[in-house]
Amino acid sequence: MSKVIEGIKYADSHEWVKVEGNVGIIGISDYAQHSLGDIVYVDLPSEGDEISKGEEFGAVESVKAASDLYSPVSGTIIEINSELEASPELINQDAYENWIIKVELADPSEVDALLDAAAYEKICE
Amino acid sequence: MEELKLTCLHDKHVALGAKMSPFGGFDMPIEYSSIKEEHHAVREACGVFDVSHMGEIFVSGPDAERFVNHIFTNDITDAPYGKIYYGIMCYPNGGSVDDLLVYAMGEKRYLLVVNASNIEKDYAWIVEQSKDYDVVIDNLSDRYGQVAVQGPKSEEVVERLLGLAVGDLAFYTFKEIEVEGETIIASRTGYTGEDGFELYGSHGYINKVWDALIASGEVAPCGLGCRDTLRFEVALPLYGHELNDDITPIEAGLGIFVKLDKEEFIGKNALAEQKALGLKKKVVGIELIDRAIPRAGYPIEVEGEEIGTVTTGYHCLSVDKSVCMALIDARYSALETPVEVRIRKKTFAGKVVKKKFYQKNYKK
User: Fold this and answer.
1) What's the pLDDT score for residue B1?
2) CB contact under 8 A, A38 and B36
3) Is A54 helix (H, G, I), strand (E, B) or coil?
4) What pTM was estimated for this model as a whole?
5) Is A40 in contact with B292 (Cβ distance < 8 A)?
6) Torsion of CA B341, B347, B351, B353, to 10 degrees
7) Any CB–CB contact under 8 A between A61 and chain B?
């Protein structure tokens, strides 16, 4: 069974977002990392990039395929997790500890429309 | 949607918790533990692949040798019993029907081992071409199960765990062995670049082989995921990627398997002309400077213009580099030519290199 944690929100495209003040911390779920298998590359955006909810902001690559990442929120990217450049497999080790980008939220209410843990667990069945 | 076929080992893969996916019309295991782990198990020790989905087509009869030479680019004239030939079946324009192995079974009989995704097409093609030849064509693909046991420890494993005397087999030869009341075929062949064996037998026997190998704990079950990463590293082509009805064996760099001095074969004139006039397109190796990963279908560009497409690409597991094989305009095919690969919205710099990214370790 894949791990789903409480207190954060999920998109049905398997990204999660944790809100800290006005910042959204974004990663992919345990279900996603397990489906992908060994992650060998993370295609990261740049700090300062503007993104919109639902827009593709990068990709996570397994041995076999590239999987696009879709932002669950709109805003400005203020930090990227550069540890993932040398060690993309960190996401396999802990998908919730190892975030991918941090976004200054343009519209914090967007998070309300996302799935909570129970609802996300349902769609993974 | 057409129902997927199952190999005789399907239940074993499901029981082992393999990630399954359709391939060539079959429900096949992609990975059991992880592609990386399985890949390294084959390079360092021993792995076993279910390849029962492959096709087995027998050609027999008074005209068998002449007919096989007619449809096959390699030369099987006077082939001694026990020898195996790799080659291609071509269309008259030189495009490829399939790549395959031909086993010389003796007594005017040949076993053609073809790709799973092409069994029906190949059988129809072979039957169609056989009209003026005194031959019988038998598609026995459903009757055979097949496993590939691959890796530096494979000889010792097959001899000890399966009791099969394969140690004296030279590369690209086979023997028939009486075991468990049937005749099986064991060949020193494979698709990984390591020493290894392919075993053909009844569904029951192949199940016993699989069970014995897995139960020992010494042989890793390996799926199609690492089957592709392994063959890719040693520049072995995959039909549908480096070969198709629009890519000739010469364009794919397989000219040594095309015997233009044979009297005739389907596609000979087109291929001879192509060789004489020079190629317009060619399959080459490309190495990226970055870690970004080139994948099948991604465009290759030079100065903003598209000059080709990636046929297969990976972050190479044995040699920590992002590399690919690509079909490109032959004018850019010289080694060291700088090119770019377009990956999603950005381009990444690379250069043309030899296709063999990893050294093969065959027992010769």
Assistant:
1) 55
2) yes
3) coil
4) 0.93
5) no
6) -30
7) yes
